[in-house]
Amino acid sequence: xxxxxxxxxxxxxxxxxxxxxxxxxxxxxxxxxxxxxxxxxxxxxxxxxxxxxxxxxxxxxxxxxxxxxxxxxxxxxxxxxxxxxxxxxxxxxxxxxxxxxxxxxxxxxxxxxxxxxxxxxxxxxxxxxxxxxxxxxxxxxxxxxxxxxxxxxxxxxxxxxxxxxxxxxxxxxxxxxxxxxxxxxxxxxxxxxxxxxxxxxxxxxxxxxxxxxxxxxxxxxxxxxxxxxxxxxxxxxxxxxxxxxxxxxxxxxxxxxxxxxxxxxxxxxxxxxxxxxxxxxxxxxxxxxxxxxxxxxxxxxxxxxxxxxxxxxxxxxxxxxxxxxxxxxxxxxxxxxxxxxxxxxxxxxxxxxxxxxxxxxxxxxxxxxxxxxxxxxxxxxxxxxxxxxxxxxxxxxxxxxxxxxxxxxxxxxxxxxxxxxxxxxxxxxxxxxxxxxxxxxxxxxxxxxxxxxxxxxxxxxxxxxxxxxxxxxxxxxxxxxxxxxxxxxxxxxxxxxxxxxxxxxxxxxxxxxxxxxxxxxxxxxxxxxxxxxxxxxxxxxxxxxxxxxxxxxxxxxxxxxxxxxxxxxxxxxxxxxxxxxxxxxxxxxxxxxxxxxxxxxxxxxxxxxxxxxxxxxxxxxxxxxxxxxxxxxxxxxxxxxxxxxxxxxxxxxxxxxxxxxxxxxxxxxxxxxxxxxxxxxxxxxxxxxxxxxxxxxxxxxxxxxxxxxxxxxxxxxxxxxxxxxxxxxxxxxxxxxxxxxxxxxxxxxxxxxxxxxxxxxxxxxxxxxxxxxxxxxxxxxxxxxxxxxxxxxxxxxxxxxxxxxxxxxxxxxxxxxxxxxxxxxxxxxxxxxxxxxxxxxxxxxxxxxxxxxxxxxxxxxxxxxxxxxxxxxxxxxxxxxxxxxxxxxxxxxxxxxx
Length: 898
Ligand SMILES: [Zn+2]
Ligand SMILES: [Zn+2]
Fold this sequence. Notes:
Blueprint (H helix, E strand, L loop, with lengths): L2 H9 L2 H4 L3 H5 L3 E4 L6 E4 L28 H14 L3 E2 L23 E4 L2 E4 L5 E9 L16 E11 L7 H15 L7 E9 L3 E10 L2 E13 L4 E14 H9 L4 H17 L5 H10 L11 H12 L3 H29 L10 H17 L6 H11 L6 H4 L1 H32 L4 H11 L3 H10 L10 H8 L21 E2 L7 E10 L2 E4 L1 E2 L13 E5 L2 E11 L2 E6 L9 E6 L1 H25 L4 E7 L4 E6 L6 H16 L4 E7 H8 L13 E7 L3 E4 L14 E10 L2 E8 H22 L3 H36 L3 E3 L2 E7 L4 H11 L4 E9 L2 E8 L7 H12 L1 E5 L3 E6 L5 H12 L1
Helix pairs in contact: 6-7, 7-10, 10-11, 10-12, 10-14, 11-14, 12-14, 14-16, 18-19, 22-23, 24-25
The structure holds zinc ion (2 copies).
């Protein structure tokens, strides 16, 4: 069931869902819009609703509040209002979402989304809360700067309440508060407000809503989330959720009546950039455009051309004039938005790249750079970043304090963009010469070459071509990269009947007794187990199961749901058998040392490289470990040394490694979201591994009791494994000792072999290499001399206009080639035969004027005598299957070239 159908279904019972006393008491009545057909509530007897689709932005030039509100002041009054009315104000959450399977925080309510098993779970720190949550959405990029209302980064005002019948509140109170906020706080006339009925379909929950529309602008949307599941299969939740979200930018806009919401937030910054770019604004045109922009939605147009065409008709202005006058202004709006989005994202640990969360960041960064170029705006992106960070220094000071890091990352990205653009240009031109570009090809051009449609458009214009860029390009890009792909764990039905396996692996148990509950393929299921099942990047334990006189090796252990499965080789112990499990303890210790080392190295890397560093993946085996980190550049030798030094310092300090269990919300508040290095949690209770008070991570692995037990950590290598991700490989503890003793036995063997001491080993090897180079050089010269002597001895035979030589010579392929080079001229054909490493080696050359191709000649000889060879027109080489004397060979040659 889609959104429309759900709305229709619920509206059959509208009194149950939307009829609220608070609306009736204030004189609101339900009506149906004659234009769009939506049901809405208003005081006035309106024919047409206040939705943007149904009317112009009537507030432009005519603000609807009693005074103008700045961004800061608007939030202040909203926050004060909600706090006065029993809400707790929360600090904003990161815009890069670490606690739920979304790349970005797309709305305030996401702050309270968590997963439990595979279901959405609402987790509130207090029954009623409010937060100003910067939110990133990339499904409307083409509309940003154009419609006056779309942003990739907007400030989401969240009013939320978890209602269980006692604490929190439900619909009546929500609308009562919001009516007060609109009328008493902002001074909007009650008669101006429309509440439009709608529904909300989320991931794993849904509900119905009332949208607040004033003078053509949607100011907020109160969602009453009441059902869990899908419209086909759902349950009513015990705890219902009020989720009222509003864009702070829109409150500023309607209170200021500026042309766009960008002007309302970035008034001064827009002016400054217009000045630098030397753009004269046609105020009258912009105002007319702004009023009707309520109905603009770029993505609904088939192409940008149609967009300008229709707009031109409506405004009665030529397309060309519109483009020239509005294009650069729209670009400035978009660039300001994109700069803010990038700043929040990078400050919160996002990195532009070609994968995952970084994908959309690179898209908007490249879009900004190409817009500046396209309209020749005369400022650089760094100036914009600075203006934006300063603009928000009072309410989001972290943007200014993080500005240097943002600039550093943008600079690197800009260089990459320049290089890839040149390459992309050739590809685009080649592709354009073949015909039109499909949407798939455009997406592919972006994905593989990083070239934006703006750039493609530019290149097309240069060669006088018009191309159609589908307006849903950015939406489609976003769709491709919106959600994290998470594989659903499918638990086989055969396992459903088993009780959870009692887990002993955290208790240092080397041997344990257990009862076999059953088998599943090659897997044995026990009532209890001390084997660590693979997970969190840590390989599983191995060992054996003893029963009676038999013993079978356990090669791998996994966990499905709550059941631990032991993969064994040989005869499976029967159901009901008593077994003794023996864990390979040496392997366990090494893996454990590597796991604790991974946490330490991760901490050290974050300390040395910066907070943007985040674990992307990790692997801990007995032999070695690696840690993949998000970072924008390759590591320098010094950085590696520093990380290693700090990691070993933590080992030396012998800090306690403590395990604690706590509620998810409590852990987040105490330690922050960096506990989710291994990904988002799916349980409401977490196992937290703490290294002293330095580092805390939610982790299910086995760990040393103190950092000293980890032993020495040696970083072996660091590589950039993909865009924005580096891999650190290292060994620790026993594995490190073993590796070191292996290296020292290697050194000893070399000392013996080369009859030298350890200290002189390197110097000796260097000298040996040098000597080899000298000898090789000498050898080459000698061979050249031999070739020359040979050449003098050999004579050509004239056949028509050509001179021909067929000869058997002694020497290796190099010598044959040299002889041939010494002798050949434009009119010569040289065929040399030699024996090299028991092969009948043949070298052929043919001059330019002979009309013979060396390759063809070689192939013909091979065909007649038997053998293989290849080359080009001038030279060819090969080998013959049989020995042949030169007279015979000569006959063959003459036959072929005749
Ligand atoms: Zn309407
Ligand atoms: Zn861990």
